[in-house]
Amino acid sequence: MERLGLHPVALTERARRLVYGQVNGFGQIGPASLRLGLDIAAQAESSMMSINGDLNRDPMRVGSPVVDVMAASTLTSGVLAALVWRSVSSRGGVVNISLIDVAASALSYTWAEYRLNGVMPLRSGNVQPNIWSSAEVMPTADGKDVISAYTKEHFSCLCDSRGLAGMPADPRFSENKARLKNRAAMLSELHVATRKFTSVDLCERLTQAGVVVGAVRTMAEVGPGKQVSQPICSSKSAHLGASPRCFQASRRRSRAAADMGGGYRS
Q1: What value does the CA radius of gyration of the chain take, rounded to a whole number of Å?
Q2: pLDDT tens digits along 176-221
Q3: Distance between CA atoms of 172 and 148, rounded to whole angstroms?
Q4: How far apart are CA 247 and CA 240, in angstroms?
Q5: Global confidence as pTM
Q6: Homologous superfamily (CATH) for 8-117
Q7: Do the beta carbons of residue 66 and residue 39 sit within 8 Å?
């Protein structure tokens, strides 16, 4: 952009109300700003890849270019904030976003945990090493479901709904530390129970029991006519892969309608 004469400083000096947004890989200043940046490089250098995947395998990128997507969303938020500022000050500005900053901020929870306890986060697949079960993949008759039942109440509901009412009282599984220690034995019993149901049936039964559960689906299984969640937008143009935002104008009662005891107008 600079080679084309479109440097943000030059443009904003000529057009004071201009809001200029730009994204690069590794920041706007210093030697790193000259580096080429892509999603995977940001995932690597932010530590995202170091905690993704299994410990006995190479670090892995997230399966979708999530940093690119988050960078676009972050830039949008920055531009909107700049437009609000312009409405107050009559001045625009430059919004700078870098892929590395976006990737690191996405790990805020993990960074906070690391700084609090000093324990280096390691790759652990779908399992959170200190809690069972924050996210456990369970086999079903026709696929797999992911189940989160880490509170005592959720674990009891999970066991009760699968005909394993005695499991929560078993000393091997009664507390979180015990469940982590005896995870293999516990999963062996749970897998026998979950394999008796299809993924959809297991989801319905566990949902009714108050357990967080989701069927592991492929993209082919997430399509028109298949409920992903409640429809995001009622617009006929809404489709999978579109922005998950839907704006509906607030409805206010007009003064004339209020005077006549009428209804609302958009």
Answers
A1: 25
A2: 888 888 988 999 999 999 999 999 999 999 999 888 999 999 888 8
A3: 19
A4: 17
A5: 0.73
A6: Crotonobetainyl-coa:carnitine coa-transferase; domain 1 (3.40.50.10540)
A7: yes
